[in-house]
Structures are given as structure tokens and as C-alpha cells.
Amino acid sequence: MVIEVRPASVFEDVRAVVGPKSPSANVCWCLSHRIPSRLNNELRGPARGEYVAELCRADPPPGVLAYDGDVPVGWAAVAPRSATTFARNRKIPHLDDLPVWSLWCIRVRPGHRKQGITHSLITGAVEFARAQGAPVIEAYPLDNGDARVDLTMAYAGLRRNFERAGFVHAADTTSVLAGHPRILMRLDLR
Fold it and tell me: Rounded to an integer, what distance in angstroms lies between the CA atom of residue 39 and that of residue 89?
């Protein structure tokens, strides 16, 4: 299996990985950290998918997708922190005034997990941010040690996967997800 990571500019492929089974569902679409909570609550059903379709047509697109051949098998949300709710988040510290990019969501489709796709997504997100001129990329993964993490809540990523990609622990946060503390990890791209 050869995994290729590409910018998430094809909406149908993004839908295949992060879209709900029912178009009328009001689930995440990976919007909860991308847009203000008021807008996130106002976007209902098909409007959520329409919003994501617009993001896919934007430059830059909203993240990267991992492909096994032509099949989209994974997603990573990556964008300038200033364009996300992390710009105003009181639980995740800001370390400096650099125009940091954030990598906050990783999802691998069922049936494709435990094949290294997460690692490909992290590497692809880093390269995507670097190509967009990001000086630094941050992630806010769970610091779970060896404890198991519910797959639904593992979207933030796990510390060890980011360490493997060269990220370093830069700060603790006051954010907790699924009973595990989240930490701020960074990779300098300069």
C-alpha cells in the first residue's frame, strides 16, 4: 500500500472521510474548531456540507487527505491558527506572535486504521503548511501515555505520533479531552 497525501480540494473525497452518513445530520464535519461556535451551532444539516464544499474550493483548502490509490482514507485539518477558534482559545496558550498553523484533527476511515496512515497525514499536513509559508506548525494532542483512547475522541491525535514526526512538547494546556490532558506540541518549519 502506497499512501499519497494531497490538499483537500475535492469535496466528495472530504465528504467520504468526515461527512455524516445522513446529509441532514448535524455532526462535526470538522468544523467545531474551524469556525466560531455560534456559526457552528447555526449551520444545520446540509448547510454544514455546503460550508465545507466552499472551504474545499478556497485557497488554501481546509486540510489534507490521504489516498490509497484513488480512495480517500484519511483526513487532517490544518490551517493558520488565526483562522481557527484556537486563535481565541483560553485553554491553549499562545507562545509568541509567529503566524503559526494549527493541526487539530486527524481521522482515518474504518477499515484503514493501524496501517500508518496517521503518520502519513501528519507528514502531509506539515508539508502542506510549509508550502503555504507557515514558519511553525502546532498540534494539541492527547498526552495519554499508554492509556487507551476512545477512537471518537482520538481526533486530536496522540503525543507519541507527533513526537515521531519531530514535534516537541512546547507547553502544557488546561484542555482535557476524553479524560486525558492535551499538550501543545510544535514543529519549527523555518
Answer: 16
- Residue 131's SS3 state is helix
**Gap between the Cα atoms of 89 and 84, Å rounded:** 9
Per residue of the chain (190 residues), what is the pLDDT tens digit? 789 999 999 999 999 999 998 888 888 899 999 999 999 999 999 999 999 999 999 999 999 999 999 999 999 999 999 999 999 999 999 999 999 999 999 999 988 998 899 999 999 999 999 999 999 999 999 999 999 998 888 999 999 999 999 999 999 999 999 999 999 999 999 9
CB 142, CB 149: distance < 8 Å: yes
Query: Residue 29: left (phi > 0), alpha (psi -120 to 50), or beta?
Result: left
Contact 160, 118 (CB under 8 A): no
Cα(41)–Cα(49) distance, rounded to whole angstroms?
14
* Cα 130 from Cα 168, distance rounded (Å): 17
Q: What angle, rounded to 10 degrees, do the helices at 46-57 and 11-18 form?
A: 130
